[in-house]
Structures are given as structure tokens and as C-alpha cells.
Design brief:
Layout lengths: L7 H10 L8 H8 L30 E6 L8 H10 L6 E6 L5 H11 L5 E5 L3 H10 L2 E4 L14 H8 L4 E4 L4 H4 L7 E3 L4 H13 L1 H18 L2 H16 L3 H9 L2
Parallel strand pairs: 1-2, 1-4, 2-3, 4-5, 5-6
Helix pairs in contact: 3-4, 3-8, 6-9
Length: 260
């Protein structure tokens, strides 16, 4: 990422001298290769969920609820979500619940006021885990509208999407950074162009108008999170990395052969 350029020399030496360099997504793997690393396997983060998801209601009264969870910083793209609320067609009642705190909080409150969407937005701040579980249970969709910020940073993976998927919440994310490693577009969620409020609004409205599609994406996301990003899956991939390091390379194998 651009913000790491002051450390570029150190990171480049570390990448070239390490026995193995591992990245959390294809995006970060590409960044590391630019520093000189060659073989860069991708092993994403997983999530540590301490309890099973709360049962989600099949239907609920009220507006379609869009959930955002994360730090309120520029690269998370919450400003895009606020702009998207204004673009959602009037026949789709919608509200956004924004969970988290950060440097952008007051600026985002002011933006919601300028856009005229304050009546459709709730800023909760940071919440305890049990309250977050209830927020996932009550959400109709979880969004991560990430952008590239002024420093050149963006999402390396998007772990909050995995958390939402674990709770069977359908997800929408920007087609950016590591997010496409989590979301298979129209299979386990929806990808939208970054920084495009109209596209995000259309994706939200599409799920609001098609509850069956939303349920299918939520179920597929749950299967993907548990199959591809579970602790057993991640540990197995790390084990293969360490096994490869322990195995003798061609030079070592030749030396062993010559001494026999």
C-alpha cells in the first residue's frame, strides 16, 4: 500500500530474505511481489466467533436494514453508503445502521445531514459483542463500500464480510482490494464498482425487492465462510506452508545424495 512506502526498503529486504512470504489476499500478494518476493501463497484471515449466530427471522416489518460494521475511516467508504441512501428508489424503504467509531464520525454525521438522510441513518458507535450479534440478526444486508483513500490504502481482505456471512447475512462489497477474494459476485454476495453510490443503491434495492435472492446469497455466503475461511481450512493451508519449509529443497537433496 502507498502508506507503507516509507518502509518500502525494509519490507523489500524482508520479502526477499524470508524463507516464505504469505499474503492474506491476491491483492496483497501482488503488492508483496512488487517488493521482490516470488512465490507468495495466499492464506486469508479467519474469524473467531465465540457463539453460534442468532436465528434470523424469515421476514420482519419496517424498512430494509443495511448494516455497516467497522472503523469510521476514509477507506471504509461509509460516505459512499450515505450517498447511496439518497439514490435508493423511493419505493424501497431503507435505513442504515452504522456500527463503529473513528476519525470520520463527525464528518459522516455532517454529510448525512447535508444529504438529507439523517432520518434513515443510525450511528451506534462501538457496541458489545451481544449487541453486534443482534445487529447481524436484524440486518437485511451488510455492506463494505471500500474505496482507495488519499494515502492509497484500501481493504486487504474485508474480514467483517466473513463475520456477516457467518451470520447468514447477504453481503455487498466493493470490487476492490481483497474483497473479491471473499465475495464471488452473484454467488456468495454482490460486488459493486468502488466509489459508485448509484451502483451500491441499485444492489441494495435489488436485494430488497428479491428476498429469495437475498436468502440464497446469505446461505451461499455462510457455506463459503465455513468451508473456505474456517479455522480447519486455514490451519490446513498453514500446515502445508510449514511442511514445504521442512522438506529438503533440490540443493539439500543433492547434498544428502552425495553423502550417502
Amino acid at each position: 500500500a502507498t502508506s507503507l512506502w516509507p518502509l518500502r526498503g525494509f519490507l523489500a529486504r524482508a520479502a526477499r530474505s524470508a524463507d516464505r512470504t504469505v499474503a492474506i489476499s491476491r491483492y496483497t500478494a501482488d503488492q508483496v511481489r512488487r517488493l521482490g518476493a516470488r512465490d507468495v501463497p495466499v492464506i486469508p484471515y479467519t474469524i473467531g466467533v465465540s457463539a453460534d449466530p442468532l436465528e434470523r427471522p424469515l421476514t420482519h416489518a419496517g424498512p430494509f436494514t443495511v448494516l455497516f460494521v467497522g472503523r469510521l475511516v476514509e477507506r471504509k467508504g461509509v460516505h459512499v453508503l450515505l450517498e447511496a441512501l439518497r439514490c435508493v428508489p423511493t419505493d424501497v424503504p431503507v435505513r442504515a445502521v452504522i456500527v463503529g467509531d473513528g476519525a470520520e464520525l463527525e464528518a459522516l454525521r455532517a454529510l448525512a445531514n447535508r444529504l438529507g438522510v439523517t432520518d434513515r441513518v443510525t450511528f451506534t458507535g462501538r457496541v458489545p459483542w451481544e449487541e453486534l450479534r443482534r445487529a447481524y440478526r436484524d440486518a437485511d444486508v451488510c455492506v463494505l463500500p471500500a474505496v482507495v483513500d488519499r494515502r492509497g490504502d484500501t481493504e486487504g481482505l474485508g474480514v467483517v464480510l466473513l463475520e456477516a456471512m457467518h451470520h447468514r447475512v447477504p453481503v455487498i462489497g466493493s470490487d476492490l482490494g481483497g474483497i473479491p477474494d471473499v465475495i464471488e459476485d452473484r454467488v456468495s454476495g454482490v460486488l459493486v464498482p468502488p466509489g459508485d453510490p448509484a451502483a451500491l443503491a441499485a444492489a441494495i434495492a435489488g436485494l430488497a425487492r428479491d428476498p429469495a435472492l437475498a436468502r440464497r446469497l446469505g446461505d451461499a455466503g455462510y457455506r463459503r465462510a465455513t468451508d473456505e475461511f474456517s479455522w480447519p481450512a486455514i490451519v490446513s493451508r498453514w500446515a502445508r506452508v510449514y511442511e514445504a519449509l521442512e522438506a529438503p529443497g533440490p540443493d539439500q537433496a543433492r547434498r544428502n545424495t552425495n553423502t550417502n
